[in-house]
Amino acid sequence: ETGVTQTPRHLVMGMTNKKSLKCEQHLGHNAMYWYKQSAKKPLELMFVYNFKEQTENNSVPSRFSPECPNSSHLFLHLHTLQPEDSALYLCASSLWDFDNEQFFGPGTRLTVL
Amino acid sequence: QKEVEQNSGPLSVPEGAIASLNCTYSDRGSQSFFWYRQYSGKSPELIMFIYSNGDKEDGRFTAQLNKASQYVSLLIRDSQPSDSATYLCAVTATTDSGGKLQFGAGTQVVVTP
Description:
Number of helices of chain A: 0
Strand content of chain B: over 45%
Largest sheet of chain B: 6 strands, mixed
Shape of chain A: globular
Helix content of chain B: under 10%
Order of helices and strands of chain B: EEEEEEEEEEE
Radius of gyration of chain A: 13 Å
Strand content of chain A: over 45%
Oligomer: heterodimer
Structural class of chain A: mainly beta
């Protein structure tokens, strides 16, 4: 595997479910990001991790819980989501958290029923 | 509220013509500027970055930056049907912890044969 991978690619969940999104980067980068992309809206930065430490939480509701066990893996734990949380969730990585040449994974298309 | 503005399009361009995409930004302290291409159903892919005023050319792509007027543009010469995609402008937001990317909502480009 090369680049940035994400699983699952598609996810349908009910509002009471708990699920997790996984991201893995094979680029030797130290910073990882979660973005939310809704239709016709700009990409919204959610979280930034640098060397496993969270450096940015962009006022994200607590029903989204990130986890970064090491520099190569990033998770987004989801619970009691709302229908308006349906979107494409993109993971990205870069060499450092101030390095803006970010490389994106393919995304997880999330639908909340 | 720092913003990055793009015309949503669609921008219809005949094959072989030049596509011209514009982006304006509100944060005067922004230092780095990026253009990402996003095909439908895919993740963003970095195609150009520019840091200094003036033009930067890479193959059929030219990025133009004018910090005084707070705009950055992307020219696609000899447009091909494979250039049909949404083009996202991204700008660093100045923060104490380093640059954080702010994205525009994107301009959809349709190249017609």
